Amino acid sequence: MYSSYHENSFSIKETRGTCNACKQCSPLGACVVFLGIENTLPMLHGSQGCATYIRRYLISHFREPVDIASSNFSEETTIFGGEKNFNTSLDNIIIQYHPKIIAVASTCLSETIGEDIKRFIYEYKNLHKKNKKLPEIIFTSTPSYKGTHYSGFHEAVYSVVESLANEGGNCDNHINLFSNFISPEDIRHLKEIVADFGIRAMIFPDYSDTLDGALWDTYQRIPPGGTSINDLKNSALASSSIELGYVLNLDVNSSRLKTNFLSQSAGEYLKTKFGINLYRIGLPVGIRETDIFFQLLSSISLAKSVPEKYEKQRGRLIDLYIDGHKYVFGKRVIIYGEEDLVVSLASFVVEVGMKPLLCVTGGESGKFKNILQCVLSNSFSNEIIIKQGATFEQMENIIINSEIQPDLMIGNSKGYYIARKLKIPLIRVGFPIHDRIGAYHNKLLCYEGTISLFEQIVNALLEKKQHNSSMGYKYM
Amino acid sequence: MFLQKRRRQIFVNGVDSFDLIGGIPSLAGSVSQRACSFCGARVVLYPITDALHVVHGPIGCAAYTWDIRGSMSSGSELYRNSFSTDLREKHIVFGGEERLYITLMELINQYSPSAVFVYSTCIVGVIGDDIQSVCSEVNKIKCIPVIPVMVEGFLGTKKDGYKIACDAIMNLIGTDATKKLSLYNINILGDFNLAGELWILAGYYKKIGIQVLSSVTGDGKVKDIQNAHRAALNVVQCSGSMMRLAKKMKEKYNIPFIKVSYFGVEDMSIALYDVANFFQDEKLVENARVLVKNELKNLLPSLEFYRRALFKTKAAIYVGGAFKAISLVKALKLIGVKVVIVGTQTGNVDDYKLLKSICDDGCIIVDDSNPVELSEFIKLTKANLFIGGVKERAIAYKLGLGFCDHNHERKLALAGYEGMANFAKEVYETVNSPVWQFVRQYKVL
User: What is the secondary structure of B93-162 as a DSSP string?
Assistant: First the structure.
């Protein structure tokens, strides 16, 4: 009976599933955002496995404890509904963790059986309205059959802001900086930069301490740090918002049946609802993209200038580019990962004279190629193979079939097996990095981050050359 | 501080007198360290190297289980890929059977696997895709075993998944009888060839004169497993996951089984003697004796060194299965380490009775624990070494404790005599690292 499927009884031809996907599911991204809010415990409304898998995946990258609660569906819950489990879960979280916020994300299971989580929250709050210490409960819808971990991340950024931001009060001249899915080290770097510009900024989400903290004296139920709840509430009073990244949660609509629902980013929400200026720029990697970011900060700041410290950093980066330009010129690069990351890496790659051969993402915003074209502008070439919604298997096949001979791969650790086969270096950036320590200290953004990235790349190429040389020189 | 409802799952040896309860569902919101039944089946079947493992569901379940075990292969590397039907909204609404069918047909053409395992997930159970029919249809066309593993995550814990995996393996056993047999042969059940452990064990058995006919599932090969019904004996390690299979094979093929553990000197030696004795051939027993003697001659002096260096060490153990926990307690005792906390995700009442009998007074025994409890126990007992998996590692490091991985991601062989030497060395290197001097001591409570 199923063989008839081959004769195409459906109007749209079905395709086969994937091998070695270049993405994770959306609740994972939401959990990362929740972990970047002060005193917040994430909870997944679904089976125990979702929470445990996501914890293990995040712990292996950040190497920090990651506590995510689960409402722990059973077969009975699946049939009769999960409200009881939902409430029990909230009760037990409060007993064990005393959080200020419980941030709930849905899963494919709870979404499909039609759980009305917003109503559950409303009723739970009603039930406990005498309890003045009841935590705030917020919710993000993240069915894993929709979008990727990346869109899940930005959906959560949006819904946290939407739940917490409130009007009332005067514009207090701070800005909102929606910093995207970057490393804890980069978050710290951004904080330093805005502070040096004399700008007060709410950076969200801020997991720079919660997912990269120091040793504890005693186990912290919820690690200290995170974007403060007050700042999130005041995000509607900002003078402007900056969003790093062009795609954000655009791909949440990609696999939907109906696209009449338009997703919004947090910045767009604040703009439409509260009229807050929105600047959207790329992730600042490389000189060009970082210049744009710094010019923007400079125009927002009182001093209207870039602090000398960064002029110097920029100078050192250019100096480094010159030191290394010969070793990278014409080198063919494969870049993969989340859409905005790939775009910013591609922009860096072309500005130092390397060639992006292949730009691959698991996301499916439909805008990937356009944005790449825009950002690369004159350096864009139709020879770049651009694949959205792609997998590592497809990536490998393209490399083999097109006989392109790459020199370098830039992306997360899941592509290692391809780099190993090709015998080329892999520069590990992004998420996840499961085969090295220190991913949380990866600095990628702005002039300093680019210095670190460029050095890694040049040295990896030099090492390969040195290793393969018959002479084994120790001077170059 | 702790959840009241869990009080029967926490036990202080020599102080409490109730029966420690195990095997009950986790409490919602408790932040259990457990996974789901899908995970259980996935990890058990994962090491079958030349099979195609297809997860029918949205991407997460496949993504999080891509190449996660340290199981090694002597042949095919197919099992190390992550195949998924990657279901989207339209499949949830209109059904994913067609997607599954096309996925299976194309992947079989592309990869020519020896068999296919199709795992259901939570959502597939809800939308009601008829995986069984799709599998049997593909099986008819492609003439290879296509086995549905109906293991929706919400069905229960990992242990429930183990049972379903055993049933899936039963479907494969007895479907081929062409492998050449030697005089004495066994199946190894419940070794997953982490860091090549199976090869160490198979080496011992070979020296004794016994053929490992089939390994379920470490370095597993479909053809070997199909022949497993012809073995004289099933040797079961990791009884938590494989007892069901052993019992079913006893029922259906009348193959007797023995339970063993390959971890620690004592258990390893008992395993070899038990297996050798089973065949009632004095030659085998003599071979086993010689082997054990030779191995111990090399190993014991080095262990003596570790024992002297480690006598102040207090260890916490939190692992998946009770059998592993029991072996760990014994092995740690052997190198002079005191166990002060021991817990498992899936132990049952009987397992915990056994644990109580081998643990010292004051040792905390816990079922289905969570980060809050584990960290409190560490504070109470002043443990300075933790043995567990990735999730426990983060807790241990954050509190400034040494940690040794005994989970399925590890890349260090811990089975057999060689494994015991590795384990002792790792514990020694962990505990004696000078970095701990920079960690502040906990305040005495």
Answer: HH-SHHHHHHHHHHHHHHH--SEEEEEE-HHHHHHT--HHHHHHHHHHHH-S-EEEE---GGG--HHHHH
